[in-house]
Amino acid sequence: xxxxxxxxxxxxxxxxxxxxxxxxxxxxxxxxxxxxxxxxxxxxxxxxxxxxxxxxxxxxxxxxxxxxxxxxxxxxxxxxxxxxxxxxxxxxxxxxxxxxxxxxxxxxxxxxxxxxxxxxxxxxxxxxxxxxxxxxxxxxxxxxxxxxxxxxxxxxxxxxxxxxxxxxxxxxxxxxxxxxxxxxxxxxxxxxxxxxxxxxxxxxxxxxxxxxxxxxxxxxxxxxxxxxxxxxxxxxxxxxxxxxxxxxxxxxxxxxxxxx
Length: 260
Description:
Elements: H1 3-8, H2 18-34, E1 42-46, H3 52-60, E2 65-69, H4 75-84, E3 90-93, E4 105-111, H5 120-128, E5 138-144, H6 152-157, H7 165-174, E6 177-185, H8 189-203, H9 220-242, E7 251-258
Parallel strand pairs: 1-2, 1-4, 2-3, 4-5
Antiparallel strand pairs: 5-7, 6-7
Helix pairs in contact: 2-9
């Protein structure tokens, strides 16, 4: 969860929104497909938010080291989240400059991060030039899809843009990254976002009226059920991609590595 949304919930950890649960499950599937995280490997989570993703992965890979970075971290937030962690293999940092460079990262996560950055190309080039990112490092990137779906929710979260597959590919190529797999996720959410935008245009909704993931009021059972539906949606999309069929979706993803 983005720290903007987490702050609205008083940094409470649960219950988790179905979308972020489903996204995590699909990212685990992509990681298992492309990246073998071995003991003592380093995984870097850039723009980690409230640490939900990195902590979940650290539980799954207890012998790997996880470095979680978010530029919105304050010393107080780092202390709060560190005290709340249920794992010992996660370290939190407020800057990429603070990340230990004693070994290369096998995987770098940028989960819905690039849209928050005014100069997304500069961030990717900065990462590409870090000592802990080399030719063996894989990057897993997710971004929101389609500029035409830009709405009050994006403004609330501080997004600068949304991405088509073409604009994402252009960005990755300019940053010296080669996609290994790419596509869309969450096809079933596109109609819902279109209805949201139509409602926004008809009655007028401003970003200060939006709560994002923090608006989730359902219980644990409902969250699990809806997350299972969204995960199934994503799994169908991933399966069709292997057959050369690309569905639309509310999110874009790319697994990539530095170009030779």
